[in-house]
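[job 4471] stage=fold_predict status=RUNNING
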Amino acid sequence: MGKTTGVVRQPYPEQRKHRRFALRYPVQLKFSSGTAVSELQATSRNVSIGGLLLEVPSPVLKHSPVTFTMTVQGGSVVHPVELVGEGKVVRIEPQGSGLGFAIAVECTRPIAQMADYMSPSRG
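[job 4471] inference complete, writing structure tokens
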């Protein structure tokens, strides 16, 4: 008879479309809450061109459309860079007693620098 190796295999290997980067930056998250627009201060846990995983203090409903602004600063970045995006919440997980929530946001288009969204002012 064969031996077990102690290795647990998942029935379906996890496949990702885009490479993820472990980046921790402040994120301002906006979403609709009934008839009002709500805002949360979040922190990115990981980021890819197609989405990001955020740590938030309160839950956001799954499938909620969101917009976000992530401020990249520190390290070799001389001036803070604001990256913007929009998408929907595809997963939410409680992080334990009083530690908030992790939410996964799938972007509807790639994350872009804020300057790309602003038209030049005309004088």
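[job 4471] summary: The first strand starts at residue 26 and ends at 33.
[job 4471] exit 0
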